[in-house]
């Protein structure tokens, strides 16, 4: 890849691995049986195997590359909404008019559809929502509406990026907090956090929380339309299957959030102030195949350091600048599902991170429990 111009289609081609999921969804829907497991097997098992084979990619592209050279990278994120829309609603239409799939097959199939809308769709929406281009931001909103998680836009941009590593950020997983407890916590805390951030912005412009400019109106309309379309196409069964794939997608998003920042906190400086966000405040992973599938999301240290940097230009860091995950997100996600295994792998790494970057902090009790003061003005 590094020997070709970054602007070439062949350089961008590995980031189009997500397209393989579309024919896999078609095969699973029409054939049933064991094929209903093809999508999670591809996205998690095969990609993890490819990570082992391909190793790490530590090459860093020129961060000053103009956006005009990134056409083929941007294109995959911009065509994903129509593809995902067709897969979700086309599958609902088909399975509610045929009877060759058992109940269990339908459950596994639409969990796999959730892999498409979660492992890929939400990751792509994340990239799109960080851009200034209105079309890209709208495509990001549409992708989030298909998983009923539209508030993620507000929470991610107005809370997570500003307050990551502090008690104000719900999705910074605390040390020793198991994923299942974390998942339930963020399902309740994040919508409220997003609403609070938006209404606070409105108040600065002397507008009330129900003002038409509040994006929650847009979120509500888009999500109601998504639900109504599922019901119109597939009735109550179609609606139930739509809700199941949405839940599976959100579960995968929060599993990723859990892995990205587990146990990492910013130093409290006093008077409601925290140190600036640095690469050290996110877990970094340079694993090649999973970064292809998830468009460099695992170069998360640089994403938080430079949030406006498009995914092909994200930099990776060595262990002197950022903590390193031992495996890519798919494998780490499975480990997180077993809290004792997760703690055995990650807790020693968190403790080593503390000694390396913050040897002056002797008592970590408040950091571990999220009891340090809230950031000023939050």
From TrEMBL:
Superkingdom as given in the UniProt entry: Bacteria
Domain (Fatty acid desaturase) ranges: 108-333
GO CC terms of this entry: plasma membrane
Keywords: Cell inner membrane, Cell membrane, Iron, Membrane, Metal-binding, Monooxygenase, Oxidoreductase, Transmembrane, Transmembrane helix
Pfam families associated with the record: FA_desaturase
Location(s), subcellular: Cell inner membrane
Main location: membrane
Membrane topology: Multi-pass membrane protein
InterPro entries: AlkB/XylM, FA_desaturase_dom
GO molecular function: metal ion binding; monooxygenase activity
Family: Belongs to the fatty acid desaturase type 1 family. AlkB subfamily.
Protein name: Alkane 1-monooxygenase
